[in-house]
Amino acid sequence: MTAAAPLDDYVEGDTVEVTVGAPAHGGHCVARIGDPPGRVVFVRHALPGERVVAEITEEHPGYLRADAVAVLAPSPDRVEAPCPYARPDACGGCDLQHVAPAAQLEWKASVVREQLARLAGLPDFPVRVEPLPGGPLGWRTRVRYTVDAAGRPGLLKHR
Question: What is the dihedral of CA 54, 22, 159, 86, to 10 degrees?
Fold first, then answer.
């Protein structure tokens, strides 16, 4: 599927080349598709400013969800994820492992700033996110495991 296709013609499994915009809640970034760009695509495994090939994973009436399956122009904030399962169609607990630690803090602050501006009407509210004790990988607020047929515990896939 090409980016010039009608907006309603995108289905799960299609790929689209997009330039990724601002971070959104839940480890996604916002991109827009169409000609002119209009329909929102929330892209996981991407960073703001990157040009990626994104595979559509969910269709909704007003937006799509997608995974970045190829990075065509990487951000300088992109790093190699320390976990081999931090990739599309794998673990759902590794949302920002491809983001440098300092950029993760700014990512989180920008999401909070956007929410405060949009929902609370506080466009210039200062937001600073502090590093977590133990670094970005040494802290969890929740973990949900599943058990396979052999009784082995593991993390769930995204969504």
Answer: 70
